[in-house]
Amino acid sequence: MGTEGRGTIFRIKGSKYMLYLPVGVVDDSMFPFKCDKSMCVRVSFKPGSDRIIIEKMEEKNKEG
After folding, report:
1. What is the Cα–Cα distance from 39 to 58, expressed in whole angstroms?
2. Considering only CA atoms, which of 35, 16, 29 is closest in space to residue 54?
3. Res. 1 pLDDT band, cuts 50 70 90
4. Which single residue of 1, 13, 38, 57 could bond 28 by disulfide (Cβ 3.0 to 4.6 Å)?
5. For position 64, what pLDDT does the model report?
């Protein structure tokens, strides 16, 4: 496993983009998210930077 790998961002269906993360990175025991299926995340960046920030979004209470 590893804490670094090569990912890809690519365009799908005109107005959407997909971010591919290598399985070796996501399956690492130190990866900050446990993801068995799809999950909502917040993506942000600082203008002028070459980095993006991906944060897990809190799940909304289904009861209300």
Report:
1. 10
2. 35
3. low
4. 1
5. 46
DSSP code at position 61: P
- Kindly state the average pLDDT of the residues 4-30: 91
CB of 22 within 8 A of CB of 7?
yes
Model's pTM, two decimal places? Answer: 0.70
Residue 23 C-alpha from the chain's centroid: 12
Sequence-ordered list of residues with C-beta below 8 angstroms from that of 44, at least 6 positions apart, any chain: 52, 53, 55
H helices of the chain, where?
A: 23-26
Q: What is the DSSP letter of 3?
A: S
pLDDT tens, residue by residue, 21-45: 999 999 999 999 888 888 889 999 9
Distance CA 43, CA 56 (A): 9
